[in-house]
Write a structure and sequence with these properties.
Shape: globular
Strand content: 15-25%
Oligomer: single chain
Radius of gyration: 20 Å
CATH architecture of the largest domain: 2-Layer Sandwich
CATH class of the largest domain: Alpha Beta
Order of helices and strands: HHHHHEEEEHEHEHHHH
Structural class: alpha/beta
Length: 286
């Protein structure tokens, strides 16, 4: 896993380096390469450690000296990792765009809590960025991660917004669902107004959701009913991201550290060996 992960990251870093301007290169020569820093950051999500500090000090520095010859101190590595947050985000986006839309997609969002509700007014790190939002489980302070996946559990696109942005926000959905086609299945939070529904329909997208109790019932194709019932696949993907890959915690001390952890977790998911998927019999219904 570690070797394969490093290979793909190194190929991306070579491509990224070739596209950047020569004037943007730093004169300071760091001991660890960008490929090694990104590999160590992403591999944390497979390590089983609960915190990155334990992972780096008790894991990497102790057992990976042969794999990474010029390891630095923990504090220095955190600085280097934060500087590559944007590169990790670009790699995560590239991996998503390598997955081709099949015409059947599932969309959902999940809160990324940055502090306990009792500490909202004392939080300085995300004071100007995060916002209070509400989910079915109550209020939170932080951001929302929006993802759209195919029936095989591959992430096709993602975005994150402040916590008070609605799932059906027009700007967010237009960005999230760009270049997709076919049917998109979501929960009741994705009930669209007439104008937005027609916009997506004209662009080859049909948003399918359950209806609220105060709405008139409408006929739905049997295949859409089955796939709508299988919408839980996207919740399974979110569970993997938050529980197994640890993209969500409240210990961040800077915005760049938050982004580095989020993007490296999304990269790790692309290499996750057992993604949730829908069986073939549900994909072939006509």
């Amino acid at each position: 896993m570690l070797v394969s992960l490093f290979y793909h990251i190194d190929e991306f870093c070579k491509l990224l380096k070739s596209k950047r301007l020569e004037s943007s290169k730093s004169s300071f020569k760091q001991s660890l390469s960008n490929s090694e820093i990104m590999t160590i950051s992403v591999f944390f999500h497979f390590s089983g450690y609960k915190t990155f500090k334990d992972y780096y000090i008790r894991g990497v520095l102790r057992y990976n000296q042969k794999d990474f010859k010029k390891l630095v101190s923990y504090n220095r590595f955190i600085e280097l990792r934060q500087e590559l947050a944007l590169d990790l985000g670009l790699f995560a986006m590239l991996l998503c765009h390598l997955n081709k839309c099949t015409g059947t997609s599932f969309v959902d969002s999940t809160p990324l809590v940055v502090c306990h509700n009792r500490r909202i007014y004392s939080n300085k790190v995300f004071k100007e960025m995060a916002a209070r939002g509400k989910t079915s489980t109550g209020w939170f302070f932080g951001f929302k991660l929006h993802i759209v996946i195919d029936e095989n559990g591959n992430i096709l696109n993602f975005s994150f917004t402040p916590g008070n942005v609605s799932d059906a926000n027009a700007a967010t959905l237009k960005s999230l669902l760009a270049d997709l086609f076919g049917n998109i299945y979501g929960d009741k939070g994705y009930l669209l107004n007439q104008e937005l529904f027609e916009y997506f329909y004209e662009n080859g997208l049909h948003m399918i959701t359950k209806i609220r109790s105060n709405m008139n019932n409408k006929l739905m194709e049997f295949s859409d009913k089955i796939l709508l019932a299988k919408r839980g696949i996207v919740e399974s993907v979110i569970d993997i991201l938050k529980i197994h890959l640890s993209i969500d915690h409240t210990r961040h001390r800077s915005a760049r550290a938050f982004l580095a952890n989020l993007f490296s977790g999304l990269v790790a998911y692309a290499f996750y060996p057992k993604k949730p998927s829908i069986t073939s019999k549900f994909r072939t219904i006509s």
